[in-house]
Amino acid sequence: MVNSIGRRQYICFLLDGAPYGARPAFSMKTHTSEFDVAIVGLGPVGAVAANLAGAAGLRTIVVERGDQPYVMPRAIVFDAEIMRIFSSIGLAKEVAAATRALEGSIYLGADGKPIRAFRARPRSHELQWHPSNLFYQPELERILRNGLLRFPNVTVLREKEVVGVQKGDGSSELAVAAARTTPGPGSDARQIVRSKFVLACDGASSTVRKLLRIALEDIGFEERWLVLDALVNGALQWPTVYAVPEEVRSGRYSLMVCDPARPATLIPGVGRHRRWEYMVMEYEKDDDVLGETWLSQRLAQWVEPSDVEIVRSAVYRFRALIADRWREQNIFLLGDAAHQTPPFYGQGMCHGIRDAAQLMWRLCLVKDGAASVAALDSYQIERAPHVREIIAASVMAGAEVCKLDPAAARARDIEFRRVELERADRPGWPFPTLSRQFGTASLIPAQVACYCRKCCACLPRECCSDWMRFSRADSRSCPLNQ
Ligand SMILES: Cc1cc2nc3c(=O)[nH]c(=O)nc-3n(C[C@H](O)[C@H](O)[C@H](O)COP(=O)(O)OP(=O)(O)OC[C@H]3O[C@@H](n4cnc5c(N)ncnc54)[C@H](O)[C@@H]3O)c2cc1C
Fold this sequence. Notes:
- With 482 residues, this protein is an alpha+beta fold.
- It is 26% helix and 30% strand.
- The chain has 11 helices and 25 strands.
- The strands form 4 sheets. Strands 1, 2, 3, 4, 10, 11, 12, 13, 19 and 20 form a 10-stranded mixed β-sheet that branches. Strands 21-18-14-17-16-15-7-8-22 form a 9-stranded mixed β-sheet, with helices on both faces. Strands 5-9-6 form a 3-stranded antiparallel β-sheet.
- Helix 1 (44-55) packs parallel to helix 4, helix 1 runs parallel beside helix 9 (348-367) and helix 9 packs antiparallel against helix 10 (378-401).
- It binds flavin-adenine dinucleotide (FAD).
- Residues 40-46, 63-66, 70, 74-78, 161-162, 201-203, 207, 227, 316, 335-336, 343, 346-350, 352 line the site of flavin-adenine dinucleotide (FAD).
């Protein structure tokens, strides 16, 4: 539905199937404020974007529907590149204190014995960040939100939601209302936020993406998984039907149980936090598996009931989706608003944080007149191939893990063991405790190329502080290469 204020046309969102006009969209007490950057959503991606914008000295406003970080279990691991981004916003020390290294992941086959191992490469220097870091998402979000208190140039509006958007050449406008969860007087007051750039970090059901009518491409994966976070006292016990290697028992590796009867995952969190994930079968309803009896029966395999406290559980539909367009004039999609990745490589949030880092320096250059607005097109050109590559890898990994046909699962196991044997034949196999059969597949996701900003020559990542990154496939689209 379309409303108008003065000369501007606003696209208003339909919430709960009701035209937004049912609550007058812009007619009540409306006032306007102006910013360099307006960020919609204060999840991890919006919070990193806001810290980057704050550190860059941009006049920034964040609009967030909720008042607290999201409480359901979600991301649990991020990679070294994300830690470098936390470092760039001055929060690495605090984040590192809330994380611990994940050294690898072991897959068990249909026979309960190892079929595949991923290992994080050992750090070559103590100043290097760990390739894979375990964390607790609400704690990370708390650190990122607190980080914003350092910046007087960043304003955060909590319990407010964006309900309309108006694109413009030099600036765009957002219509902001009290979040629907906040009833009572004043909830119909409207605020117009005008900003040079708008960053839609409003998650998988992005309001802004829908308002702009940007379609999602479905890459073709959909499985329901139950995700359960628990606090555990003492050691876990190990089901005798599984040959669980020492790396998992000692809490250094995660475990993927590729049992066609019920694929499952166990991830060792920080401190007493442990994560279990179970594939939900087609014949099961969400409520069936969220019941206390079902959950307790599963956990009883791994831990004494008196030693475990279930913190939260949820059923998710893991999907692989990517938005057609990530930019519409000066409005950008980031994070889950732009793409959704099945979590088999723990990369969904990492993608979004990379989006924020790669967009922000472009915005700064354009704002300062050091680059033309054409440089903003390279945001999607750079990021999308990397995201696609990792989504494809996650979908492939997920398809192998989620095999429910016993014969297909056995064939997978034979193939995985063959590949591991091949890897083990290579020299320099450095891992002492797992059977030598298992090789050195890396947990680090595919990396993009680094280009020097001055000469655009391809660089090893660490050799130049003035680098920019493009996916190899699209290196010729580097705007500085034109
Ligand atoms: C089970 C599971 C495990 C995962 N594991 C990992 C992992 O290990 N590693 C990893 O990197 N990723 C992982 N992910 C993915 C990761 O959790 C998400 O990619 C990440 O949380 C997305 O962050 P975001 O900031 O883009 O969106 P969100 O976290 O969804 O934040 C969006 C924010 O926008 C706000 N909002 C929405 N609409 C509006 C509006 N109209 N106005 C104002 N505010 C609005 C919401 O309130 C919310 O705070 C996992 C996901 C799941 C489900």
